[in-house]
């Protein structure tokens, strides 16, 4: 017989709320973590998003706060949860509010990019639960609008992302202000050395819970790679949306500007799309996310940082328009689909200069991802040309292809010249009857062409017949019109992403 939430001895008010949420069976991390956390033990949870980890800490925390009810003093919080991003912080706070809806606790969230006033008023009253991003939390501590000396429970969520965002030092500054006697819960999807060190400094005799092997991708996700040149990725992406199985998709780009460009291009191609990244204001981001959740947008184009904490049900596909620099980010990205027991697909567009990144991902995930080659596909050039002619090409903000993208950390730009070997050389791919190409919907691994894969074939073909694609791409567009357009560069915030001010 499977475990139920009743068997933990959780506060009745929580069980009522869980019934409203429709939760019947605890997820594996919940089953393992809740009993120990209820007894006050420290916890090290190695779990990625989508495993139900938020409830795994929120439920026992609410239970403990309810067992020992004391009105919080002004400018204090009984439980503190640190989150790397605003979106995740908001979602965690929403979960606390939903599970604790019958407990009458004061729950608040503080993050950067919005005014201080309402946050200060919430803190002034004293809180049972505070969810915060590190930067703004430190601001409040420095301005003495928050005092952590009586905090009983401390949670660090998505610690590996904190490291990526440069938040380890701010976290240590926060921890230094917490009382010595407290309960600590520490969650991370991966355990790089620095995060392991932080965990061992923070935790006392923790219970260790690991729900997926470190850095292993979720098994239910059908993963595939499509070799395609950077300049043809947008056309390929648009083409994929002729398949209705691509019902709700998250597309990842490396840069904020890239996210805007891809969203604009999709819109010009008739696919409803919005972009979410750190240069957008908080209200803009919330509006776009709400439209995506409501199904008004079919595609959400996001950068890694902005996508942290996006918890949207039924994401059918994650598309890596560009591969991330950090292999672990791949695991996080594809974890946005196949949530809560559902299936999902992840498709990665890989250009020649991204080979090294792909190899790093395969090393970390310990698997080869099946690949197909679309680099020699003239139809993409024609589609690109017609979309450019239809609208995008007239916008000053849409310079050609991905040339403004930063170079990848590794991997030469021209693999042929640099003598790079194909990671997938010679692997044959079966084609499903009636299928045209890549990404053919949920559960589809059998994407594409019939020829054995050779990542250098396109280069060879192009050097033999360079004119064919160029002609197709150039025809409906006045070339000069595109090339004359100035390349706009957005002001940089030091590459920190929006969460840096969070
Ligand atoms: P998380 O990993 O905390 O981001 O949770 C992933 C998703 O699973 C969220 O949409 C939760 O609402 C949902 N969820 C968490 N626990 C359960 C459960 N026991 N039963 C059903 N859904 C759950």
Describe what this molecule looks like in 3D:
This protein is α/β, with parallel strands linked by helices and 502 residues long. Helix content is 37%, strand content 13%. The protein has 20 helices and 14 strands. The chain has helices at 12-21, 28-38, 53-67, 86-99, 117-125, 134-142, 159-164, 168-176, 193-202, 233-240, 256-268, 282-293, 304-307, 327-334, 355-365, 378-390, 415-418, 457-464, 467-474, 479-484, and strands at 43-46, 77-82, 107-110, 127-132, 153-156, 183-188, 207-210, 221-227, 249-252, 273-276, 299-302, 317-320, 344-350, 371-373. The strands form two sheets. A seven-stranded parallel beta sheet has the order 3-4-2-5-6-1-7, sandwiched between helices. A seven-stranded parallel beta sheet has the order 10-11-9-12-13-8-14. Helix 16 runs parallel beside helix 19 (467-474).
Tell me the Rg in angstroms. Answer: 24 Å
Q: Please give the largest β-sheet.
A: 7 strands, parallel
- The CATH topology of the largest domain: Rossmann fold
Instruction: Kindly state the number of beta strands.
Output: 14
Poorly predicted sequence stretches spanning 5 or more consecutive residues: 213-217, 393-502
What is the end-to-end distance?
44 Å
Question: What is the domain tally?
Answer: 3
- Which term fits the overall shape? globular
The CATH class of the largest domain turns out to be Alpha Beta
The fourth-level CATH homologous superfamily of the largest domain is P-loop containing nucleotide triphosphate hydrolases
List the total number of helices.
20
What share of the residues lie within helices? 25-40%
Which strands sit side by side, in order, in the main sheet? 3-4-2-5-6-1-7
* Class inferred from helices and paired strands: alpha/beta
* Percentage of β-strand residues: 5-15%
Mean pLDDT score? 77
What is the correct CATH architecture of the largest domain?
A: 3-Layer(aba) Sandwich
Give the ligands present. Answer: adenosine monophosphate
């Amino acid at each position: 017989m499977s475990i139920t939430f009743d068997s933990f001895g959780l506060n009745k008010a929580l069980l009522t709320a869980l019934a409203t949420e429709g939760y019947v069976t605890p997820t594996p991390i919940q089953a393992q973590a809740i009993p120990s956390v209820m007894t006050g033990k420290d916890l090290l949870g190695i779990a990625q998003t989508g495993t139900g980890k938020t409830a795994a800490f929120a439920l026992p925390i609410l239970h403990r706060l309810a067992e020992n009810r004391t009105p919080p003093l002004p400018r204090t919080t009984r439980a503190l949860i640190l989150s790397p991003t605003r979106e995740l912080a908001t979602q965690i706070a929403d979960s606390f509010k939903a599970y604790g809806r019958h407990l009458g606790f004061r729950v608040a969230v503080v993050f950067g990019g919005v005014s201080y006033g309402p946050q200060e008023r919430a803190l002034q009253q004293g809180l049972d639960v505070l969810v915060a991003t590190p930067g703004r939390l430190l601001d409040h501590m420095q301005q003495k609008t928050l005092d952590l000396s009586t905090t009983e429970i401390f949670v660090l969520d998505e610690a590996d992302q904190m490291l990526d965002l440069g938040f380890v030092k701010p976290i240590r500054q926060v921890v230094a202000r917490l009382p010595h006697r407290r309960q600590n819960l520490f969650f991370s999807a991966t355990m790089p050395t620095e995060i392991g060190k932080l965990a061992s400094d923070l935790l006392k005799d923790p219970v260790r819970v690991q729900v997926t092997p470190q850095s292993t991708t979720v098994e239910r996700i059908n993963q595939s790679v499509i070799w395609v040149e950077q300049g043809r990725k947008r056309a390929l992406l648009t083409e994929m949306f002729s398949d209705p199985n691509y019902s709700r998709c998250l597309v990842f780009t490396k840069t904020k500007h890239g996210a805007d460009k891809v969203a604009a291009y999709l819109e010009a191609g008739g696919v409803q799309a919005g972009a979410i990244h750190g240069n957008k204001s908080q209200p803009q981001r919330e509006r776009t996310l709400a439209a995506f959740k409501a199904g008004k947008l079919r595609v959400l184009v996001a950068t890694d940082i902005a996508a942290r904490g996006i918890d949207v049900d039924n994401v059918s596909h994650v598309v890596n328009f560009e591969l991330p620099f950090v292999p672990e980010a791949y695991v996080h990205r594809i974890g946005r689909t196949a949530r809560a027991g559902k299936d999902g697909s992840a498709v990665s567009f890989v250009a020649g200069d991204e080979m090294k990144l792909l190899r790093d991902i395969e090393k970390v995930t310990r698997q080869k991802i099946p690949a197909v080659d679309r680099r020699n596909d003239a139809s993409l050039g024609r589609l690109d040309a017609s979309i450019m002619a239809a609208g995008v090409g007239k916008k000053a903000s849409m310079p050609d292809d991905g040339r403004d993208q930063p170079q990848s950390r590794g991997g030469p730009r021209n693999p042929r010249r640099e003598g790079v070997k194909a990671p997938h050389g010679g692997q044959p791919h079966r084609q499903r009857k009636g299928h045209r190409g890549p990404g053919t919907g949920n559960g589809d691994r059998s994407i594409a062409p019939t020829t054995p894969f050779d990542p250098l074939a396109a280069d060879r073909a192009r050097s033999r017949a360079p004119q064919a694609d160029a002609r197709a791409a150039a025809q409906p567009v006045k070339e000069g019109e595109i090339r004359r357009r100035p390349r706009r560069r957005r002001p940089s915030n030091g590459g920190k992403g929006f969460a840096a001010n969070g």
